């Protein structure tokens, strides 16, 4: 924000905007407290960082791998279906190294 | 899988959360931490911490030294975090790498979550021997699909690896052609996609 706006007295029309500055700074303070607590809550919930591992998988995988799986009716029904007619869980079973983790 | 789901439902009220199990990290990979990691991702995606979760945290903090979560509590918090989400995809990779205790606890917890939150879909990968555990702890809810790379997958993978083969002196076009022909024929469902394809054979 242009710092000169702070210097203007609240005598012009623009001053009304400036008069909200204290509100803004109040919000900033509140957000800092909130972010701080949010970070603590996230750490309290779990120290695990699956996104880091996911980024590693993303960097190493080969696009197109297992495309047949992602086009299979069973997969599409699971992805798009709902209600009791469709099972909520898909268990992809395979030996280590067959590419389950690297499905794209 | 995760990115595909995200692309497919971009802009919709859909969250994708994942956990990668790892037998080298048993100490940290407890049920509480794994369910908590899912809750974290749901809250991150929504950008909001529900009041009930804040209150649970503040209450735990008031106890001397702070208090860790228990399994049932963490399941409740995840269920709470999921309320505003229309559809949630929870992906658990390599569930067989959990310790036995946490395997049953995790699956039971996920079952509770999926029973309580109708928009939840679970995608679990694991070795064939955990199938019975998946079917036991997620009764009536699991469909099993055996995964093995098909010949296209194998060919594409080989091409990628051969392209990145730095030992070009050893790797002649004839040898490449031979590898592309022989390996897909000889490998039906084995350790193909992991880093187990040999590099260009040298004169050992």
How would you sum up this structure, described in words?
The complex is a heterodimer of chains A (104) and B (204). Chain A is mainly α and 104 residues long. Chain A has two domains: 12-45; 62-104, no CATH class. Chain A is built from six helices and one strand; from the N terminus they run H-H-H-H-H-H-E. Chain A is extended and about 45 Å long. Chain B contains eight helices and four strands. Chain B has a three-stranded parallel beta sheet, sandwiched between helices. In chain B, helix 7 (151-163) packs antiparallel against helix 8 (173-186). Chain B is elongated. In chain B, 37% of the residues are buried. Classes of the chains: A mainly alpha (104), B alpha/beta (204). Chains A and B meet through helix 3, helix 4, helix 5, helix 6 and strand 1 of A and helix 1, strand 1, helix 2, helix 3 and strand 2 of B.
Shape of chain B: elongated
**Average pLDDT rating of chain B:** 83
Q: Secondary-structure element sequence of chain A? A: HHHHHHE
Strand content of chain B: 5-15%
Q: Which structural class best describes the helix and strand composition of chain B?
A: alpha/beta
Model regions low in confidence, pLDDT < 50 over at least 5 residues of chain A: 1-29
- How far the N terminus sits from the C terminus of chain A, by CA atoms, comes to 44 Å
Classified in CATH, the superfamily of the largest domain in chain B is P-loop containing nucleotide triphosphate hydrolases
In DSSP terms (H or I, runs of 4 or more residues), the helix count of chain B works out at 8
Can you tell me the number of structural domains of chain A?
2
Radius of gyration of chain A: 26 Å
Would you tell me the overall average pLDDT of chain A? 69
Q: Which architecture of the largest domain in chain B would the CATH scheme give at its second level?
A: 3-Layer(aba) Sandwich
Number-wise, the strands of chain A total 1
What is the string of helix and strand elements of chain B?
Answer: HEHHHEHEHEHH
- How many distinct beta strands of chain B? 4
The shape of chain A, in one word, is: extended
Unreliable stretches of chain B (pLDDT < 50, length at least 5) are: 189-204
